[in-house]
Amino acid sequence: MTDYRMDQTLTLGPVTLTVADLERSVRYYTQVAGFRLLDRQTQRAQLCVPGRVLVDLNETAGAVAPPPSSPGLSHFAPLVPTKADVARFAQRHLDAGLDVDPRDHVVSQSIGRVARAATPRPA
What's the rounded Cα separation, in Å, for the pair 57 and 101? Predict the structure, then answer.
């Protein structure tokens, strides 16, 4: 197998998450994580930073998190420009009573939250 590396200019589109409580999820992503609400419908919301949709939430009544061993997205971690931004992001979560999961991915640092069908709840 040849040595292959993904182009460094690659970016990904929005993360689509199924949530059990859309209102709670929108509150978390706007008030704690700092995203902006772009569009809100009965069972769907899009969250963004200026010029770019990052999270697409879809509400499904009774949604539950899949087993940890199942395939698919287990978390997403927004990449922020500096370590100071990582610290502020983590502090906002701690101030809100939420747990954080700091990761050093060698090429970047991030703060992730396990993606749960029932959006983050205070620890």
Answer: 21
* 64-83: pLDDT as tens digits: 888 878 887 666 777 777 88
User: Which string of b and e fits 39-59 if b means at least 16 CB within 10 Å?
Assistant: eeeeeebbbbeeeeebbbbeb
> What is the pTM (predicted TM-score) of this model?
0.73
Task: Transcribe the chain into DSSP letters.
Answer: -------TT----PEEEEES-HHHHHHIIIIIS--EEEEE-SSEEEEEETTEEEEEEEE-TT--PPPTTSSS--EE--B-SSHHHHHHHHHHHHHTT---EEEE-SS-EEEEEE--TT-----
The dihedrals phi and psi of 69, each to the nearest 5 degrees, come to: -85, 0
> Distance between CA 23 and CA 55 in Å, rounded?
14
